[in-house]
Amino acid sequence: MPLEAVESPRLYRQIADQLRHLIDRREYPVGGRLPPERELAEKLGVSRPSVREALIALEVEGRVRIRMGSGVYVVDRPAGQPTLLPVADEAPEGPFEVLKARELVESAVCAEAGSSARPDDVATLDDILARMELPGLSSDELVALDRSFHVAIASTLGNAVLARFVGMLFDQRINPYFRQLASYFENAESWREAVAEHHEIRDAIAAGQSDGAQAAMRRHLQRSQERFSQSFGEGPLHARPGRRGGGRESVVTRLARKN
Hints:
- The chain is mainly alpha-helical.
- The chain folds into two domains: 11-90 and 232-258, Arc Repressor Mutant, subunit A (Orthogonal Bundle); 95-228, Up-down Bundle (Four Helix Bundle (Hemerythrin (Met), subunit A)), CATH 1.20.120.530.
- Helices cover 61% and strands 3% of the residues.
- The protein is built from eleven helices and two strands, in the order αααββαααααααα.
- It has a two-stranded antiparallel sheet with strand order 1-2.
- β1 and β2 form a beta hairpin.
- The relative contact order is 0.17.
- Mean pLDDT is 84; it is low at 1-6 and 236-259.
């Protein structure tokens, strides 16, 4: 099967499908470890975030288990578990695609908020930030307040469509794949960093700094992507013989040949 150009917006599904095929063929047996994320990305010719989204999807499906500091291991599929990921129309967007979309949209929204926010808008942001800093909040409570903060910024523009759109983009993270990814990297420290970044956004908006607000939001969402991109701790690349590059052969063939 020749390798064709990938145009699907859900690239991670195609990667997950091909990895699952190799698992089903016992190229990666139960109990065995998959190649590190970086090696898979190089072999497939895709980005590491796309590989990470595929691995998270396979873990949610029950085909692999991610062990922080060790790697990604093939496990027995639980009885009754679906063999395939949802069809294209039902599968959620990949977490990194969502974060990138939010970066582009919300940084532009913040630029407008920097020139249109009123004192009562800033007071709303202050109230949300104060609640985010309360001790003992659960992850779900923090996520809800995080959503409120971002939607409140969009609401300063007085455009209900934009406010609703920002909320809908945020809600893309409330799906099994994003939750699973967050379970590895969200903790008290990451939330402290996020709240500090929220304060930078709030300060730029309160000061009427459009450029500063735009830059602060972009920086915040880029750092969010970086936090979710931390290593699983899979160890060094496997040194394996074999040519690199070459013809446009099947991805399955490329992986199997190098496994």
